[in-house]
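TASK: fixed-backbone design
INPUT:
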């Protein structure tokens, strides 16, 4: 089991959190590999990893160019996920803690090939834990069943322990479309995990979530990418970025459910307003306007070829 799982630790500065994260792994006698993808400026953290400051942890450190923009980040993630050698992986930020006991239980669950990913209980250090709201697994006989279930019971699947080829495919698709808004990025990763297979959500020790200082880009804090939902839907970028997400969803659903991409995109756009029932009229209006702009046919072809390459 030790060789089945690794963490992909994604860094962009916040060195105090990285040190805390690594020290927690040492204290937990963490037995799995950690792949570090560093797109920050901090040279102290780079030096610590290069000098093997945490010798009891099996680390591979990769220095990337600075993540000045989200486009840089997508390039880093596509490359970093391609380096994963284990069957399963969890993409982690440096301000959270993952528990070995929960990892081992999730790996047992993932022996069932129906599941694409699994996670246990997320304990939020702020005391404001949204993850308790929808505790049940995301399952379904078809991909569209699972997309409906995820839409109505939406939680981020960002940190789930996931089959590696599924993570690799997802970040390759994101690198092609390069969303300009982080909320779309998070929604794409969350949907894809349940498009590839069932999603396990269990009441077992797994992760402690902290809301650390926000990551900065040249265009400001990522926190600015999460205004209230109505403001977000009315934003200037929303139409084009929603179309990018629809293209990814359409291609992935088409591949897994063996329906046309056009039908899959139509189904997704009809399901999506279920996510925010109070804003259903606004969403339907904006989605109709996004459709009138049209989709990128060449990009859709490239997305489909990418999924075929990973054979998810």
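OUTPUT:
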């Amino acid at each position: 089991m030790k060789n089945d799982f690794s963490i992909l630790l994604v860094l962009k500065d916040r060195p105090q959190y990285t040190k805390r994260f690594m020290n927690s792994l040492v204290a937990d006698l963490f037995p799995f590999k950690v792949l570090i993808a560093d797109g920050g400026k901090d040279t102290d953290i780079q030096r610590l990893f290069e000098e093997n400051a945490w010798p009891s942890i099996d680390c591979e450190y990769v220095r990337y160019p600075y993540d000045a923009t989200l486009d840089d980040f997508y390039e880093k993630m596509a490359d970093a996920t391609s380096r994963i050698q284990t069957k399963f992986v969890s993409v982690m930020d440096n301000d959270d803690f993952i528990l070995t006991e929960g990892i081992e239980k999730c790996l047992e669950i993932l022996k069932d090939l129906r599941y694409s990913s699994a996670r246990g209980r997320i304990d939020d250090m702020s005391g404001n834990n949204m993850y308790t709201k929808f505790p049940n697994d995301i399952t379904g006989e078809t991909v569209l069943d699972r997309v409906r279930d995820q839409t109505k019971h939406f939680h981020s699947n960002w940190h789930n322990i996931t089959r590696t080829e599924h993570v690799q495919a997802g970040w390759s698709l994101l690198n092609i479309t390069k969303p300009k808004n982080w909320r779309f990025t998070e929604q794409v990763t969350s949907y894809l995990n349940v498009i590839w297979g069932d999603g396990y959500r269990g009441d077992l020790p797994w992760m402690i979530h902290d809301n650390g200082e926000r990551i900065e880009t040249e265009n400001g804090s990522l926190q600015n990418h999460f205004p209230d939902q109505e403001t977000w839907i009315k934003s200037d970028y929303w139409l084009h970025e929603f179309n990018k997400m629809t293209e990814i969803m359409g291609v992935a659903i088409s591949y897994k459910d063996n329906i046309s991409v056009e039908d899959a995109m139509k189904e997704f756009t009809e399901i999506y307003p279920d996510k925010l029932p109070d804003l259903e009229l606004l969403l339907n209006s904006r989605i109709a306007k996004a459709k009138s702009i049209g989709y990128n046919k060449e990009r859709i072809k490239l997305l489909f070829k990418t999924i075929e390459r990973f054979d998810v």
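COMMENT: The longest strand covers residues 198-209.
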